[in-house]
C-alpha cells in the first residue's frame, strides 16, 4: 500500500463510523479497517442465530421465537433525543436519507416501587401521581422558569447566575422535595448519578430544555426516536456517507497492528503483512489496549418477551429510568424496550434490555429490580462488559481513542465523545445549529 492517508480508522462501531463520515465530508483521506466482517463492532445489531451463538454457544434458537432474520437485537441499545446532538449530526451530514425513524411511545420513571409516566411539561406535572397538590404548584413554577430561561437574555435569569449557582441551590429556591428532585434530575435531565446536584445548574437546565424541545418535535409520548430495523443501520449509514466522499473501507482485516515511528507517533497500520501509512489513527479501546484504562463495568440483561412492559400504557417502545436513590445504588438503572413496531422483532415479540453501571460481579442479582418490572420472559441473557477510556495524549502519539459505551439509553454522551475527538483531530468545532424542521421528513 503506497498511499498515505490523513486518518486510518480502526473498528466500525458507531463512534468510529460517525467520525469516519465527518472526516470524509471534510475531504480528509480516510481508510477505515475492521477485524470483523460486519459493521457495528460493539454497537452492532444481531439476528437470533447470532444472538444464540454469542450467548449460548449454539446456532439453534427455539423455533417458537419466530424467524431469526426478523430480529435486530442491539448490543448497545440507545434511543435518540429528537432534538439532540446525534439527530443534528445526521441532518448536518444528510445521513437521514439512508434511514427511517419512528417516535418512541413512552418515557417512564420508577418511584416508590411503581412505574409512572414522566411529566414533561407544567400541564402533565399537574396531573402526575408522582406529586401531591402543593408540590405540583411548586414544580410548575420551576418548570416555567426552565421553559422561559434563555442564556442570552438576563431578564429570564431572575437574578441567578447558573454558572455559579449549583443545581441543589436552584431547586431549593423552589422548595421541591427529594422525590421531585429525583425525577427532574434523572428522568428529565438524564443525569446518571447525583453528582450533578453540587455542579453548576446551567447544565441541568439545558438538559431539561433539550428534553422538552425533543418532546415537542414529534408531539409523541416521549422525547425519543429510534431507527427502523435497529441501531445497526446507523454505522452503515455513516459508512455509506464516508464512501460517497471518497473514504475507503476494508472489513475482515485480521490483527490491524498500529505502527509507531521513532518519536512514538502513530504512522500506519499493518494487517496481513501490508502496512498502510497515515498521519493519525482513530480507534476503539480494543485496538490499543495499552493506551486505555478501565473506568467501570456495565451489567446488562437482554430479554425476549411476548408482551409490552407492564404499566407503560401498552407501549411498544419505551424507556423506564430507575433512579439510584430509589434502588439504594450509586448509579441509575435503565429499562429499554422495542418491538416489531420498529422492525426489530417478529410480530408480537418485544425485546427488553436492563442496563446499569455494575457495582458487583452478579448481573442476575444486580439487575433484578429492573427485571422484576418486565413481567413474563421467553428468554433472557446476562452479560457484563468493561468500560475503558483513553489514558494517552493524542497530541503526543496521534492516536485518538473513543471511550466505551456507557449504560445510558440515549445517545448524548456517545455523540459528545465523537465531537470532542473530531475537534481534537481537525481543530474545528462542528456547527450543528441546523434547522430541525427540515428533519421532520426523516421521521416515518
Automatic annotation (TrEMBL):
Keywords: GTPase activation
GO MF term (any one): Rab GDP-dissociation inhibitor activity
A biological-process GO annotation: vesicle-mediated transport
One Pfam assignment: GDI
Cellular component terms per the entry's GO annotation: apoplast; cytoplasm
Record carries keyword Ribosomal protein: no
Claim: Nuclease is one of the keywords in the record: no
Domain of life: Eukaryota
Task performed by this protein: Regulates the GDP/GTP exchange reaction of most RAB proteins by inhibiting the dissociation of GDP from them, and the subsequent binding of GTP.
Record family assignment: Belongs to the Rab GDI family.
This protein's name: Guanosine nucleotide diphosphate dissociation inhibitor
Organism annotation: Zingiber officinale (Ginger)
Amino acid at each position: 500500500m503506497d498511499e498515505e492517508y490523513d486518518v486510518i480508522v480502526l473498528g466500525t462501531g458507531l463512534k468510529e463510523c460517525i467520525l469516519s463520515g465527518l472526516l470524509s465530508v471534510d475531504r480528509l483521506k480516510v481508510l477505515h479497517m475492521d477485524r470483523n466482517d460486519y459493521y457495528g463492532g460493539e454497537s452492532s445489531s444481531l439476528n437470533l442465530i447470532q444472538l444464540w451463538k454469542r450467548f449460548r454457544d449454539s446456532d439453534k434458537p427455539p423455533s417458537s421465537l419466530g424467524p431469526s432474520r426478523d430480529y435486530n437485537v442491539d448490543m448497545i441499545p440507545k434511543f435518540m433525543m429528537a432534538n439532540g446532538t446525534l439527530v443534528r449530526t445526521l441532518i448536518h451530514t444528510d445521513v437521514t436519507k439512508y434511514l427511517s425513524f419512528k417516535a418512541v411511545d413512552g418515557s417512564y420513571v420508577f418511584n416508590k416501587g411503581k412505574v409512572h409516566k414522566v411529566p414533561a411539561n407544567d400541564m402533565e406535572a399537574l396531573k402526575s401521581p408522582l406529586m401531591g397538590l402543593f408540590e405540583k404548584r411548586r414544580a410548575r413554577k420551576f418548570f416555567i422558569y426552565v421553559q422561559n430561561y434563555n442564556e442570552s437574555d438576563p431578564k429570564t435569569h431572575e437574578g441567578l447566575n447558573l454558572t455559579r449557582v449549583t443545581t441543589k441551590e436552584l431547586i431549593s429556591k423552589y422548595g421541591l422535595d427529594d422525590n421531585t428532585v429525583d425525577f427532574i434530575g434523572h428522568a428529565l435531565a438524564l443525569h446518571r448519578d447525583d453528582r450533578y446536584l453540587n455542579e453548576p445548574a446551567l447544565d441541568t437546565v439545558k438538559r431539561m430544555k433539550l428534553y422538552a424541545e425533543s418532546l415537542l418535535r414529534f408531539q409523541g409520548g416521549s422525547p425519543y426516536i429510534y431507527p427502523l430495523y435497529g441501531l445497526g443501520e446507523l454505522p452503515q449509514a455513516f459508512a455509506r456517507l464516508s464512501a460517497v466522499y471518497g473514504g475507503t473501507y476494508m472489513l475482515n482485516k485480521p490483527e490491524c497492528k498500529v505502527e509507531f515511528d521513532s518519536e512514538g507517533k502513530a504512522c500506519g497500520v499493518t494487517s496481513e503483512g501490508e502496512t498502510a501509512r497515515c498521519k493519525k489513527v482513530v480507534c476503539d479501546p480494543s485496538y490499543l489496549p495499552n493506551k486505555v484504562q478501565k473506568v467501570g463495568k456495565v451489567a446488562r440483561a437482554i430479554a425476549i418477551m411476548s408482551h409490552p412492559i407492564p404499566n407503560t400504557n401498552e407501549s411498544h417502545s419505551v424507556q423506564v429510568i430507575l433512579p439510584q436513590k430509589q434502588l439504594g445504588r450509586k448509579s441509575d438503572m435503565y429499562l429499554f424496550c422495542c418491538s416489531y413496531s420498529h422492525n426489530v422483532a417478529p410480530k408480537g415479540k418485544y425485546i427488553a434490555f436492563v442496563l446499569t453501571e455494575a457495582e458487583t460481579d452478579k448481573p442476575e442479582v444486580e439487575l433484578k429490580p429492573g427485571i422484576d418490572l418486565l413481567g413474563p420472559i421467553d428468554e433472557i441473557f446476562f452479560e457484563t462488559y468493561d468500560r475503558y477510556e483513553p489514558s494517552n495524549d493524542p497530541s503526543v502519539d496521534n492516536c485518538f481513542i473513543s471511550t466505551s459505551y456507557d449504560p445510558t439509553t440515549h445517545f448524548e454522551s456517545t455523540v459528545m465523545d465523537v465531537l470532542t475527538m473530531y475537534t481534537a483531530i481537525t481543530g474545528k468545532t462542528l456547527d450543528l445549529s441546523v434547522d430541525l424542521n427540515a428533519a421532520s421528513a426523516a421521521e416515518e
